[in-house]
Amino acid sequence: METASVLSASHPRVQKWVEGSFGQLTQAQELTLPHILAGNSVLLSSPTGSGKTLAGFLGILDHLVRAHEAGDLGSGIHAIYVSPLRALTYDIQKNLMAPLEGMGLVEEIRIGQRTGDTSTTERAKLKRKPPHILLTTPESLAILLPQAGWAEALQSVRFVIVDELHSLAENKRGAHLMLSVERLQQRLARPLIRIGLSATAAPLPLLAELLVGTRRDCQIIEARMERRRRVEVLSPVRRNPYPPAGYTAQRVMQDIAQIVERNRSVIVFCNTRSATESVSIRLKNALPDLAPKIEAHHASLDRDVRLEVEDRLKNGELRAVVCSTSLEMGIDIGSVDCVVMISTPKGISRALQRIGRSGHSIHMASHGILVATNVNDLMECIVCAEMTRAVQLDAVRVLEKPLDVLAQHLVGMAMEGGYTREMALSTLRAAFPYRDLTEEELDSVLNYLEGGGRSLEKQYRENFGKIIWLDDCLTVPNKKVEREYLANVGVIHTEGMVTVYLGKRRLGQIEESFLKRLKNGDIFVLAGRMVRLLESGVGEAKVEDAMGRLPTVPAWNANKMPLTSGLAHEVARLRTELAARVGTDSNEEVCEWLIERFEISNSNALAIVLHCQNQLRVSRIPTEHSLLIERFVDDREGSDADLVQFFFHTLIGRSANDALSRIIAYRVKEAVGGNAMVTIDDYGFLLTLRSFQSLGLEEWKVIFQNGDAEADMKASLQHSELVKWNFRGVAQTGLMVPRNRPGQDRKIKQLRWSSEILFRVLSEHEPDHPMLVQSYREATHTFLDLPRAMDFLQLAPKLEWRLVEVPVVSPFSFGIFASKIKEGLMLEDPEEAIERLWREYEKKVGGAGDAYLPSGGAPAH
Q: What Gene3D superfamilies would the database entry show (predicted)?
């Protein structure tokens, strides 16, 4: 009845096609269509497979059918669909043909794609005869806005669909897109109808504001699809929490191989591209008969390689695809039976998105398996599984007013013409990320764009000048600026990648820094293939097949995903609960509680209990109400007796620990001199100090005082590579160091050299330059999580402080110490380190079999 009622308001052609194709609408479509027909902006949040893309387009198709019958279609664009993924626009174009064919309007209603992959010939055709529905990306939309040839076509836009809105919210691409939409709105006589499509995310009112900007209404629709979701935790960790090196990796691959054998199609998600390559090659080795049907997929692979994998997966030709984040979003990949995640994806929204890729239809259940590779990982996985079942979402954090993106858009606005300073400020503030933009911030960016800033304009105005004022309006000084702008739109900066060719086929890209470590004849993995390096030149490398040989896995600079605050908090709560139970309840009682609460096996529950008891024999279990500091001096023969290790169990996530550890290391240097070696992970950080830097509990309390943490953070970053690395990206996005010159790509060395000189000049002579300010802001608020670190410093005085002298590295510190021994190596290497640490523990403390552990255990402190 609801479907009939909703459809009765739509055009008969739309109604007939829906009823003939599906019989009825999904809940997402029922709830969304009336609002779009009424001309309201809408944010639709619903799980993958709920029909949300069609929900966004049905009202637009209704409008186009009516416009066609009324003779009002014209030659302009009526709707713009923006996706963060080029592959998604390719999918949407294919999927939109079905309703147009069903309604008999294929010839009348045109659909066109304009992305970075669109050929020059196709672009020219689109400009001559614009589509009624334009499918594009944030970058390509920004390129069209200032071009005179597109101005008339854009005048007729009524709808903008933003797909995968949640994935844009927290990054520069989101801020970039929202400014483009406001610039589009500025030239239209009536308000745009904005349609946001998002996977499950929170808080929805914030996402709605991001979509429509300030001072506008938006209908929020949350479609709770009645679809079963099964989330399991699988771990090779049995009764022994610390199995021998190699055991875990071998068992993980055996378990994943069995899952692949049991199912028709499986996606295996890894958290880094290096892991993707490693796991794909191991899975092929574990299943030689299925090896041709197992492929790798990640963003560094060539587009043709990725498209081929996606098409083969959708067509049912592949049994398994191993990927990083590249298949998380809504590319149509057909029906997938099961999703495997090696370790947690560090957040619940991401876990839900990944799991939603399985059972990709409204009537099928989703099935996700979290694979824990060690006992600490197991504790994180069981918490992640519980939160995923309960849909406890992490809050989205919108990226606030990036100044380099602002600079880029001001040049685009200058090319459009007609913008006074007041009009520019009003347009910018209408975009949610820039709602609090101050006049001082705007003026600082405008001054930079006029001549480079105070320290550069006297000598280099011609080099850096991108805008001038003419009759109180922004404009550009010459055509060169326009050409340079169009060649450099976007926020993804050049990273020194080398294209790899297998024969004449482009396989993908590896980092220049990785290639420098190789010599001709070395073997590495790319696209799930073992290849041998033949020769390398400027920006490219030639390889040949090297099947059956042992590889060296490429290490991309993609950061490890940081644990979200919600998941970190719940892991801290689990540790707090375990600290209360282990030592008072019997092993059996604690195991029963874990099994019932988290739906895990008895052997995995026992491994967690033994892990906690082993920790208690030398230290304490860190909790949400305490700050545990462990002091360890390695007295083994051959060790440096002057080194002191301090483990800080802060439980606040990798990015926040990164920020906090830098502040603390800086304060130690200020207090007693000397540098500290810092190692971080999600649950704490390690400071390696010299004996003269060793502090007692009361001294550490002083070091952790809140004070001016932000100033200390800035001081600690003053000579760091992190700010310099961020400046390279900011300088490119802010058009200070263009990535590309029209007609030629700039070499990485040129970019780095230019950025290096500018960074040095600005740091010394103009520290308040907007591009330098933005670099520090990104270092502290995007790469690091300074706000969360500062929250911890405020909380620290209220915590129960414990400084424990440990005779060995404690079990809860095994992971971080293994990272210190060898950061970022393959799975076996940390395992070997942990095996060594466990042997040392056994030698000093005694074994940990449950035969000699008392039923309740006994805390050492």
A: P-loop containing nucleotide triphosphate hydrolases (3.40.50.300)
